[in-house]
Amino acid sequence: MERLTSPRTIKYIMEKYGFKFSKGLGQNFIIDDNVLTRIIEGSDINKEDGILEIGPGIGVMTDVLCEHANKVVSVEIDKSLIPVLQETVGHHENLTVINQDVLKLDVLKLVRDEFGDRKPKLIANLPYYVTTPIIMMFLEERIPVSDLIVMIQKEVADRIIAKPSTKEYGALSVVVQYFTEPSIVTRVSRGSFMPMPNVDSTVIRLKVRETSPVMLDDEATFFLTIKDGFGKRRKTLLNALSSGFLRISKDQAKRALDMAGIPENTRGEALNIDEFASLSNAIYKVKSGGV
């Protein structure tokens, strides 16, 4: 069989197995070998690594991962692709394929069962509408992975790495940067896939932080502060905080802003992660009756 990135090989597999691309499952297969090389190099994947792959498709990325990593566990939702994967990558002794929907899977148990005390790297090529929920599931539930390397829509990647006071900067930026250190692995044009999607993509690497980048009195208050801060972007923080999920009065919001040294007319998009931490700590103290 020719290389799996060959459109001719993909067409052969589709005809042999009666496979049809599912738009709902976001099935777009990489046909550019250079993209695979950049992902491996940009993710620092080596023979010591365990890999949890979500969305292997016909095994284009899986094949390369098995060659470079110590162990690969691939989770594929589409039952019709399991016999395809057996043919294309079934020869790799360091590969385990699981036919499951990752959103319905006990991923924490899977990671512990398959990798023990080692933290694998997550590699994912998914429908764009589920990528962010899956990223947040891994981060919020603190599933033990060392990195998340995901193929996402270019605009979402730009939002994740965005800095304060830019149009891309938002709640997603702050929350992901709280949990991880994000960096761009490579940009991927729509022509690198079959079938060709309507948007360009970016492979982003989220290196999970070992320790929190900020000191928090209460993490839940921190997340609500971020949510309220960006909930209504045109509102000043004074008005946004006093009419949001934190359920504090305008007087409480004013006191918290004063404690954090943030002007009342500031908008959430202007705050960096340290300032959000200071503000949330002040809000927690005000709500707790500490001041």
Walkthrough of the structure:
The structure is a single chain. The chain is an alpha/beta fold and 291 residues long. The longest helix is centred in the C-terminal third of the chain and has 15 residues, at 273-287. It contains twelve helices and nine strands. Helix 3 (60-68) links the parallel strand 2 and strand 3 (71-76). The radius of gyration is 22 Å and the shape is elongated. Helices cover 41% and strands 17% of the residues. The mean pLDDT is 93. A seven-stranded mixed β-sheet has the order 4-3-2-5-6-9-7, with helices on both faces. The protein has a two-stranded antiparallel ribbon with strand order 1-8. Helix 9 (219-231) packs across helix 12 and helix 11 crosses helix 12 (273-287).
In short:
The chain has twelve helices and nine strands. The chain is an alpha/beta fold and 291 residues long.
Which structural traits does this protein have?
291 residues, 41% helix, 12 helices, single chain, alpha/beta, two-stranded antiparallel sheet, seven-stranded mixed sheet
